[in-house]
Amino acid sequence: RTINQTHYLCYQPALLSMETKKGYNDELDANFKLAMWTTAWQVGISWFTRQGTACTPLPGVIVYGHVWELQWAVDTVDTVYFIKHPEPIGNTATVAGCYRLLAAIRYLVSVWSEEVFLPWFIETVVRGESN
Predict the structure, then answer these.
(1) What is the pLDDT of residues 17-45, one digit of tens each?
(2) Distance, CA of 63 to chain centre
(3) 41: enclosing H helix or E strand
């Protein structure tokens, strides 16, 4: 049993899944792969939690060329819903887009990961307590 579905990171919890594509013509494939990675992680984590425990909402990023989009995987125990952020979180085609992207990534890996993901992970997975 491991925390992460990727072998070389098997003992480090993944708090973000990412899929990259060349353009929007691959949108269905990108959504499918992001859902597959996120679901695989949630199934792996379920081995360490009590039955019926919902996973905290998890961010997923899809990159289409220069455009970066954010989705949230929301687990209701019976179903996982993917909720797309209404606009791109940034792009690498412009300086302003890069700064916006940097701000979004910084928020996810610092504020969100420390205030939402890590407390959930410690209480639910490490200590094995149900929310």
Answers:
(1) 888 887 667 888 888 888 888 888 888 78
(2) 13
(3) helix 27-46
